[in-house]
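Predict the 3D structure for this chain.
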Amino acid sequence: MGLAANLMTHTVTIASQTGKDSAGDPSFGSQSTIRARVEHKIAKVRSNQGEIIQAQHRVISESQILDTDRVWLPGDSTGDNNQARKPVMTGHADTPSGYVLYEAWF
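Done. Predicted structure below.
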């Protein structure tokens, strides 16, 4: 854990995209968990594709969440792939000391 460890009070589960299957649909690797700060925060954000979208959750972590990842927030059933969420916007903030925090909006 880094400098913001005391802020990371939640656990989220992530499955990263590993490729595409024969039908062209994304395939995902094993689930892993990361510590994060999950905020229920309704906001309009610009998606990674440039569209304005209303998001309902912001996740801040010391681990990068990619826009191709599937994420289960606290309370979601990790055994149900239909409950996995896809980030609509991802980004990061660098500090002068080189420390990085990542954010993802859902």
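The radius of gyration is 14 Å.
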